[in-house]
Amino acid sequence: MAKVGPFHYWSRMVSRQFVKRVLRRDLTLVLPNSRTVYLPLNSAFSSVAWVTDGAVDDGLEVLLRVLGEQNTAFFDVGAHFGFYCSFLCDRHSPVVAFEPDTRTLPALRRNLAHIPDAQCIAAAVSDREGQIRFSNAESAPQSRILSEGEAVRGGSVTTVPLVTLDQVWSNLGTPTVGVMKIDTEGHEEAVLRGAKTLIETCRPLILVEATGPSLAPHANWLDSFGYCALTLTERHHARRQKVRIFAIRDIKSEFIEGMVLLVPARTRTLAAWAELEAGGCALSLSAGNWSSN
Fold first, then answer.
1. Residue 205, SS3 per DSSP
2. Of 44, 223, 234, 237, which has the fewest beta carbons less than 10 angstroms from its beta carbon?
3. Exposure on the CB side of residue 185, measured as CA atoms within 13 A
4. What integer pLDDT is reported at residue 118 of this predicted model?
5. Which distant-in-sequence residues (6+ apart) come within 8 Å of 79 by Cβ?
6. Cα dist. 150→89, 135, 140, 147, 216 in Å?
7. How much is the pTM?
8. What pLDDT does residue 139 have?
9. Domains, the chain, ranges and CATH?
10. pLDDT along the chain (293 residues), means of 10
11. Which of 44, 272, 78 shows the shortest CA–CA distance to 163?
12. What pLDDT does residue 44 have?
């Protein structure tokens, strides 16, 4: 509500409940690429996508479209029901979705079925292969890998397959990966560690949910490849978004909490990046506006 304003929030929530309880219909959202994404009714993230008109990460999802290299692979780690896969599928091939939560997989496969060359990998991602304990939280977007011996309250615990991005990338024939999204509820450090060869080779644009401490172990090698980091400083959708750009080596001293865009050197040669860096490409996220200005 704080991001979109009370009127927009309540009007969208009322319409969602009407579709869900009165019409008893599937909820779908038309994206700017004319794709329609199915929003499962029992998902809190569906509510976020619906209420924000798809601006789920306050504009960072738009930057993936603007800055990501077209005609390259997209790896979505923690794909949930496939919002990002649908949002970027017209620009990337193959689209590879990783999701271990069996409750979410039917909705993900439904959305991937309409995407040519899309693949669903029903596994968690880390820095090793095998199996691992996984918490199926009451709210699916909060489901996560459990550390050794960790107990949980609420939900259930299952054992799921475990893969690394390097392994899957190699099995796929080492395609050029231009964009990655990583949202694994606290396991992002291990995901990046298990993707070191892929990242060293492809230098993808990476949107990752992170904190300063979780990125700090990777600061030196990401910095050596010319990466910098970008976060948002304005998250109200009725105002133009502002960005903050800083060096990877400064991660330990910067306050980071939430989605961070890790930007490789080649991306920073684009005209769109020059405009963004100069402050001339702020994002306007009023309802229905999905483009950079």
1. strand
2. 44
3. 20
4. 97
5. 85, 97, 98, 99, 108, 120
6. 37, 10, 19, 5, 24
7. 0.89
8. 62
9. 6-277 (3.40.50.150)
10. 84 86 85 89 86 87 92 97 96 96 93 96 94 72 67 74 96 98 87 96 95 85 92 72 83 76 93 77 41 33
11. 78
12. 84
Residue for token pair 């077209």: 70
What residue type is assigned to position 191 of the chain?
Answer: V
- What pLDDT, on the 0 to 100 scale, is given for residue 43? 83
Give the integer Cα–Cα distance in Å for 37 and 30.
6
pLDDT the model gives residue 142: 64
Evaluate whether 90 touches 171 at the Cβ level (below 8 Å): no
**Tokens 């502002």, located at residue:** 242
- CA 202/CA 179 separation, integer angstroms: 9
Asked if residues 178 and 201 have their Cβ atoms less than 8 Å apart, the reply is no
**What is the C-alpha separation between 59 and 124, in angstroms, rounded?**
26
Strands (E), the chain: 27-30, 36-39, 72-77, 92-98, 118-121, 124-125, 130-136, 144-145, 156-163, 177-182, 205-211, 228-232, 243-247, 257-263
Strands across the sheet with 92-98, in order? 118-121, 92-98, 72-77, 177-182, 205-211, 257-263, 228-232, 243-247
- Sheet containing strand 144-145, edge to edge, reads 124-125, 156-163, 130-136, 144-145
pLDDT at site 125: 95
Residue type, 114: H
Q: What one-character-per-residue DSSP string does 143-202 give?
A: -EEPPTT---SSSEEEEEEEE-HHHHHHHTT---EEEEEE--TT-HHHHHHTTHHHHHHH
Residue in 248, 253, 171, 258 with CA at minimum distance from that of residue 208: 258
The token pair at 144 is 């996560």
29 neighbors 49 (Cβ within 8 angstroms)? yes
